[in-house]
Amino acid sequence: xxxxxxxxxxxxxxxxxxxxxxxxxxxxxxxxxxxxxxxxxxxxxxxxxxxxxxxxxxxxxxxxxxxxxxxxxxxxxxxxxxxxxxxxxxxxxxxxxxxxxxxxxxxxxxxxxxxxxxxxxxxxxxxxxxxxxxxxxxxxxxxxxxxxxxxxxxxxxxxxxxxxxxxxxxxxxxxxxxxxxxxxxxxxxxxxxxxxxxxxxxxxxxxxxxxxxxxxxxxxxxxxxxxxxxxxxxxxxxxxxxxxxxxxxxxxxxxxxxxxxxxxxxxxxxxxxxxxxxxxxxxxxxxxxxxxxxxxxxxxxxxxxxxxxxxxxxxxxxxxxxxxxxxxxxxxxxxxxxxxxxxxxxxxxxxxxxxxxxxxxxxxxxxxxxxxxxxxxxxxxxxxxxxxxxxxxxxxxxxxxxxxxxxxxxxxxxxxxxxxxxxxxxxxxxxxxxxxxxx
Length: 439
Fold this sequence. Notes:
Elements: H1 2-12, E1 31-34, H2 36-46, H3 48-69, E2 74-82, E3 88-91, E4 94-97, E5 101-113, H4 114-181, H5 187-222, E6 229-232, H6 236-239, H7 242-246, H8 259-279, E7 285-297, E8 310-317, H9 325-391, H10 397-432
Parallel strand pairs: 1-6
Antiparallel strand pairs: 2-5, 3-4, 5-7, 7-8
Helix pairs in contact: 1-5, 2-4, 3-4, 4-5, 4-8, 4-9, 4-10, 5-10, 8-9, 9-10
């Protein structure tokens, strides 16, 4: 049963989970009820990753508006006070007083360059990338929730089956002990069944612990305290849609719908704008400014006010020589853009390869699931049949031992096959960018 523990332990490392409903009567606040769709919604709403993604989106939006604001007029107010400490200016033998004064000024300026426009465009691209990353995080949370939900249901189903078989095996042991007492059966036969009974109990215990690990990972991912009980309201039969899943095999891959491809596409656009930004290092910068000034002297002495009340200034600057610095910056940005184009092409080709592989994985997982489903049915039937025969003396304790071991192995294999099928489904849904909310 170590395989069961290993399999379930892997999935306990998953993150992101479930959405709660209140209990039916609303009175038990320590128990939370989840369907799969509500679980996925709840996980998205309460995930720390999603909260951080939302903050990243707001940061990207703020950066974009900062770039746009740099192209808008900038207005500033100022007031200067000066005192010449009684100094008088001598102009052609005439003394001109320089009394204390205060100057109030308003300056409005706007600077325009191609680099500012490119910065604004880069802000738009960054916002799109941030939004795509949020969608990717959401997709990952939903798939992890789905995998954990299935893990819990499958483990719970197997646990119930093990308990039923334990009851049957315990009855066989009691029957064996009575047979030993009347001398019909040797004690070694009863001891063999006792060993199988202990093995079955260990299997039940380890499966129960593994199931609790899954629930604990759900609590941790949902940010729910560990004193809360989680109840899954859907059964495996309700959400295990094998026929619907197999329809994914007939769907055509459209790379543009894949979120990873969209991110690579936006990254290519970002490096393109970075190249354009480097190119604008040779571009001109135009600055327009208007200044209003009002100077007031704190004296009645005659003086000379040379401060103009209104002034307009226009400035055009153009870089001429940078010792090759701008050229090398542009070349570096251009090479980065070419690299991103190669990455985009590689991403598209890898998606088609992944599509073929994931279709193969899903087909193989389905075939394995069907085989293990039949295997567990046959093993259960053999176990039931051997148990009945043993009661009538037509089967030995060795037959019971073998049928018990076969049943445990079949149950372990079924768990692995079921989880592999669900995982193959999720991976293909993710590649096709299907909405994996479960109804």
